[in-house]
Amino acid sequence: MANQDYSRTIADIKGPKGIPVFGNLFQIEREQIHQYYEQWAKEYGEFFFVNFLGKKILISSNPQNNAYILKNRPSKFRRLSKMGEIIEEIGFYGVFTAENEKWVKHRKVTQQALSNKNVKSFFPKIVQVAERLENYWDSNLNEEVKEYNISSDFTRATVDVTTNLAFGYDMNTVENHENEIQDHIAKIFPKVNQRINSPLPIWRYLKSSSDKDLDGSMAALKVTIGEFIAKAENNLKEDPSLKENPSNFIEALIASQDKEDPFSWDEIFGNIYTMLLAGEDTTANSLSWLTYFIASDSKLQSKVYQEIEHVLGNKEQITSFEEVGEFKFLSAVLKEVLRLKPVSPSLYFQANEDVVVGDLLIPKDTFVLTQLRVGALSEDNFENASEFIPERWLSAKDTSGGCPFTGKHKAEVAMPFGGGPRFCPGKFLSETEMILFAVTLLKKFELTLSVSKEEIKEKFAFTMSPENLSVNLKKRNSVSSTNLMEQNASI
Ligand code: HEM
């Protein structure tokens, strides 16, 4: 029994009234489920229950309570076991689903692979991927392009970064469009989401065409991953010193086989899938949301462009890691994008024991869904919380004219990368990638939305993406030539 004080038990917790047997099942649209939870949080408060076919989910929306849940892992809370089973059933037995000692072991090797030190030394490769993006646009896009699907370019770029950094394998999907790896990856999250929210595991007895499609994609991915593994095994054979000092994630996983407590082949495959998936959708969707805000606000776009001109000077591209840190405004814009459009607005947990959160006693095994964006959109934490104000993330030292925003700002409440011991180990890598790819796009093109802002909807399929996003691109004069023209004019 939990030994903290509490004033409520789950018998006191209410929620939206459903209908007999089905509960709230027909009150929601699956792809906007997070928005229903956010709306209900306003009505029912920091804890409420939803019920799908008799299965109850406790929704937690208070940021302090959510931080407590995230922090108290793996002891008091674990990832939802049903979610773990579903993800592992597909083949992803790795750091995201592992618990307790297993998780510690998986996390160590993942964190090492994604360490700041590794990302910094890998930086030239990220620049190379950005240059390929630019080459691709130079060769394939006219001066003006309408209704362009920029999200798929971001997806390719993030796949290339992850496969290079973590697997030492240069896929160059940015330029070689015949590779379909991202099409296969794209099927996984929506399916996981559908199965988690499905009250009955129908797919185990009767496979729909989309279930069979997923099996086909997993088989294709297995072949690709087999190639990554073969390359890493060859490297280890040719240079046995890599066994002690592996140069990437895959080598580290394979090298463990000669040591105590090795990773099994299922774990090796599972972690490679995990890394591939975790690194792609999240970063690419965040870049798509960035595009959404920038393309719909010309003032914001010119401000970002001014900073790009200022930092790049006469250069065409960022050339050193230190320069990334000079994009103070763009960084603030990205933070604001992640506050308003976190790609993971909901995280799924399960109580390992009876545990008191806030004033509530939550019994062992309760399914708890933390709804993270409620706090990020609350006036209690951020002034004019629903507005896009990147300046709120700038401090006085970031600007010449003193602190640009003095309103309420509880930065810790926005948790786009999760929190506690299981917070996202790819944060630093993704922040670096996002600056580089955003600069590459925005220095080159002026962007407008091809559809009205209202037509672009939040679509939740385990991660949240902008549905219907499509942009018009107009090539700019290059940054260096604009600067030269300005210099000439001032002479
Ligand atoms: C904008 C980009 C990204 C966002 C918003 C994001 C967000 C998240 C979130 C919310 C979690 C769950 C954290 C928790 O449970 O507290 C997570 C976990 C994870 N992320 Fe990311 N992520 C991003 C990019 C990446 C990248 C680039 C990689 C690797 C290439 C990555 C690898 C992982 C892994 C391995 C986990 C599982 C950690 C664990 O369970 O211990 N992520 N991420």
From TrEMBL:
SUPFAM superfamilies: Cytochrome P450 (SSF48264). Coiled coil: none annotated. Its cofactor is heme. Keywords: Heme, Iron, Metal-binding, Monooxygenase, Oxidoreductase. The keyword Metal-binding applies. Belongs to the cytochrome P450 family. This is Cytochrome P450. It comes from Flammeovirga kamogawensis. The lineage of its organism: Bacteria, Pseudomonadati, Bacteroidota, Cytophagia, Cytophagales.
